[in-house]
Amino acid sequence: GLDLMYLPLAYCTFLGYIKFSNLKTNNIEACPERHIQELFNKAKMTHKLRIIRYFAITFYIFCVGSTTNAQTNGSFIDKRDGKSYKWVKIGNQTWMAENLAYKPESGDYFIYENKVDPIRKKNLLHDGYLYNWETAKKACPAGWHLPAHKELNELFAFIGSDPGIKLKAKTGWAMDGNGTDKYCFSALPAGRYSQGKFSEIEYLGFWWSSTEYPVPPGFDRVDAIMLYISCSLDTAYATPQVSHVGLSVRCIKDK
Q1: Beta bridge partners of 247
Q2: CA 194 to CA 199: how far, in whole Å?
Q3: Which of 11, 23, 41, 66 is the most buried (most CB within 10 A)?
Q4: 52, 4 in Cβ contact below 8 A?
Q5: Using an 8 Å Cβ cutoff, are 184 and 71 in contact?
Q6: Tell me, what's the pLDDT at 55?
Q7: Does pLDDT of 220 surpass 90?
Q8: Which pLDDT value is given to residue 168?
Q9: What is the pLDDT of residues 68-115, one digit of tens each?
Q10: What CA–CA distance (Å, rounded) separates 136 from 250?
Q11: What mean pLDDT do residues 1-14 have?
Q12: β-strand 192-194 against 197-199: which pairing, if any?
């Protein structure tokens, strides 16, 4: 067979073929290191294979990454508090790949603490803050915004079937409900906060949109659309939620 030293070049050539033949890539470029690593994850990681893995990533960046007009993943600093966030491009959209963890100067927001949930030990670094809708609408950093309902639908349209599976992180979901994280969105089940209690931790994930949802006449409340993902479902939904509930936030980049 071919010597292993040809593997990086073969992989690079394969990705280049996909890119320039206009085949649907399913965002394989979003996490190049992950896809390259999966070529080696069943092999005994000898010193030689570590060197090959290094050159595989280098070949990828040189042969494929340098031919695109924009990066497909990266990170940025929120200048308000110095926190760093990963981002990923999915289709024509650029999403934060982590839950927002910004502490606003005002509004209603909530955070898991060890004393609240000593078994799971959830914290700010893992889950981010949970915000009510009014606070969430003003929480994103400059150059980013809370996604509208139509932007959620655009995300679903690009992903196609089973968006829940493809958006969920590979770990962290209860009932063996982890996803493939195909697009490196890494959705986490941070649950929600309502009436003084945290609930659905590790089972459900909820993220606010900026779109208000009309309520029937006679109801004294405000509802808004949220992104809903469950450990037990392959799909994902855009569905209404009462606005005072605390949910996670994923910002989308301004165009």
Answers
A1: 131
A2: 8
A3: 11
A4: yes
A5: no
A6: 61
A7: no
A8: 98
A9: 445 699 999 999 999 999 999 999 999 999 999 999 999 999 988 655
A10: 10
A11: 54
A12: antiparallel
Prediction pTM value:
0.76
What lies within 8 Å, CB to CB, of 1 at 6+ separation is none
**What is the rounded distance in angstroms from the CA atom of residue 87 to the CA atom of residue 228?**
20
Phi, psi of 60 (to 5 degrees): -60, -50
User: How many residues are given for the chain?
Assistant: 255
Is 208 within 8 Å of 226 (Cβ atoms)?
yes
Model confidence pLDDT, tens digit, residues 119-130: 555 566 678 999
CA distance 201 to 32: 30
Bridge partners for 87 per DSSP: 74, 96
Region 226-253: mean pLDDT is: 98
Q: Cα angle at 198 between 194 and 204, to 5 degrees?
A: 95
Q: How many CB atoms lie within 10 A of CB 175?
A: 10
Q: Output the CA–CA distances (angstroms, integers) from residue 214 to 22, 95, 154, 164, 217, in the order listed.
A: 41, 26, 21, 26, 9
- The pLDDT value recorded for residue 139 is 98
Q: What is the DSSP string of the chain?
A: ---GGGHHHHHHHHHHHHHHTT---TTGGGSHHHHHHHHHTTS---HHHHHHHHHHHHHHHHHTGGGSSS-SEEEEE-TTT--EEEEEEETTEEEESS------SSS-EE---TTTSTTT---HHHH--EE-HHHHTTTSPTTEEPPPHHHHHHHHHHH-S-HHHHHB-SSS-STT-----TTS--B----EEETTEEE-TTTEEEEEEEEEEPPPTT----EEEEEEEETT-SSEEEEEEETTSBBB---EE--
